[in-house]
Each structure stands twice: as structure tokens, then as C-alpha cells.
Amino acid sequence: MYKSGGKFDDAIQSVVSRIATGQVMSYGEVAQAAGYPRHARMVSKAMRQSPVSLPWHRVVRSDRTLAFEVGSEPYQNQKNLLCKEGVTFCNGKVIPEHPTMDMDLGEVLWGTPPD
DNA sequence: CCCTTGACTATCT
DNA sequence: GAGATAGCCAAGG
What we know:
It contains 5 helices and 4 strands; from the N terminus they run αβααβαββα. With 115 residues, it is mainly alpha-helical. It starts with 6 loop residues before the first helix and ends in a 5-residue tail after the last helix.
């Protein structure tokens, strides 16, 4: 029997499992996509308690930074997984395979805009 | 029922 | 831009 009591967890699993390879979503985006806005924090709990293996590493913060402490084991772990997915890391931020080819990205890549 | 915690986010200083 | 504060919601003690 499946646990249908929590539509919440189920919706989160569905959304996260739908994230394409090389693509990332923020907690708030996942929560809203699942139909539960403001539940960003619940997303983490849902993924962690999820009975199935979810691509949790494709879920990042709203700033596209990893949710763990920089240098920590889980941080390096997620970073490694994303790198395998084709995601690029720069300045502590993650860049999907389809970044916005704007100068904003250029600033991120260089850390600072050219003089 | 009250308080604390958490893989969050937005706003202000 | 970084640190502090507030808002947010659910689960557990």
C-alpha cells in the first residue's frame, strides 16, 4: 500500500523527479510547482524523508547556491553530482546547461564586470 | 498547547 | 555585498 495520506510529499516527489538533467530548481520553485507555495522548507524534509531516491541534488537555493555549508561533505557531494549532470559551478553558484546568455552571467563568471 | 528546529526566502541595514 | 531580522509552515518534544 502506498502512503497517499500526504499529498504534499507525493507532489514534491513528482516535481523533483521531473527536473531535467542539467537543470536545477529552487526550493520555493519546487514547492510552488507542487502546489504548495511558501513550503520551501517542507521540500527539504519531504525529499529527505522520501522513500524513493530523488534527484535532490538538482534542488538548490533561490540564489542558486547549495543549501549546505561550503566545503562540507554534503556540499561537495551535491556539487559532484551536479557536475556529473553537466552543471557548472562558479563563484559558489550553479549554472545549468541552459543559462541566460546575459551580461549578468558574465559578471557571475568573472566575479566582477570588466573595467 | 507552547516551544524549538529546519537542505528556505525576502527585506532592511 | 554581507549580516541581521522577520515571515513562513510543518513536524516533534
